[in-house]
Amino acid sequence: MRKLPASGLTGRLLTATPSLRDPNFARSVVLVLNHDDDGALGVVVNRPLDVDVDVVLPAWQPLATAPGKLFQGGPVALDSALGLVAVPGDRPDPVGVRRVFGSAGLGSVGLVDLDTPPETVGPELAGLRIFAGYAGWSAAQLEEEIADGAWFVLPAEARDAFTDDPEDLWAAVLRRQGGDLALVASFPADPTLN
């Protein structure tokens, strides 16, 4: 099994390899929000739903990054909502926000407590996405999936979770890696039709 970074995978992208056929994760890009000895948790950042944020959290709709839709964060707890935010520049974490990765000065990505009044935290944010559900792995499960070739583990950019073109994110992340991974970006969704 390939050794993972000592800091774990928090703040990294799991980009599905073409061999990952599970419909929950095929061609998905997962931002890892927490990874430790107990397991991992992340959100699929490229699966917008056809539901506006205001259907479930109307007060947060004005802050939602385009396309202003809910995103399916993963197959676990689809009846729960998780708010991911971008905090620009060198600002300290706003009230109700817990930094996940990044740093003051360069901007960061964090989780927002959706019970915080949006008008309090909104002026401090550069982006907001609301996710229905999340992706979760038990201890060593994600490491096994990586070793089995299900995921490319890649660096994340703060804008990945807030892209205005989420449907193209899988290919865009692979293309920016260059080399062989850039070639994988053009792999057909169904190779039997090639």
Automatic annotation (TrEMBL):
Residue ranges that the Swiss-Prot or TrEMBL entry lists as coiled coil: none
Family to which this protein belongs: Belongs to the UPF0301 (AlgH) family.
Organism: Kineococcus gynurae
The protein, known as: UPF0301 protein ACFFVI_17055
Domain of life: Bacteria
Gene3D superfamilies reported for this sequence: VC0467-like (3.40.1740.10)
One Pfam family linked to the record: DUF179
